[in-house]
Design brief:
Blueprint (H helix, E strand, L loop, with lengths): L16 H15 L5 H24 L5 H23 L3 H23 L2
Helix pairs in contact: 1-2, 1-4, 2-3, 3-4
Length: 116
């Protein structure tokens, strides 16, 4: 007869998986040396815009509550502002601090997307 699994393994991904995936890739880029700060900020803007589009599709299909989408939009906006501050930073020390702040916002957005 053999061994039989007693507990079912859930292989279904959460609704916000695609959004979280975009954001995880962006966070990975923030952790590495990435061309220039302008390129990183531009990549962040593109990822945030794509995440917004995905969230709007989920909201319009009725799969996600309005308040969750609003929270994601708020965190994405803050992340974009942090990336703009990274772009504007002059000193290396300031750049590192602002990059850490942007990464923290990105992780926060990932958590929100996974809670969908």
């Amino acid at each position: 007869m053999g061994w039989k699994r007693t507990k079912e393994i859930v292989t279904e991904k959460p609704k916000g998986y695609v959004i979280a995936d975009f954001l995880e890739k962006l966070e990975g880029l923030m952790g590495r040396e990435f061309g220039s700060v302008d390129l990183l900020a531009k990549a962040g803007e593109v990822v945030a815009e794509r995440a917004r589009e995905e969230a709007e599709v989920l909201r319009d299909d009725g799969e996600v509550e309005e308040r969750m989408v609003t929270e994601l939009f708020r965190v994405l906006r803050l992340m974009e502002m942090d990336l703009a501050m990274v772009r504007a930073s002059v000193k290396e020390e300031t750049l590192e601090e602002r990059l850490e702040q942007a990464k923290a916002r990105c992780r926060q957005a990932i958590l929100v997307a996974n809670s969908f």
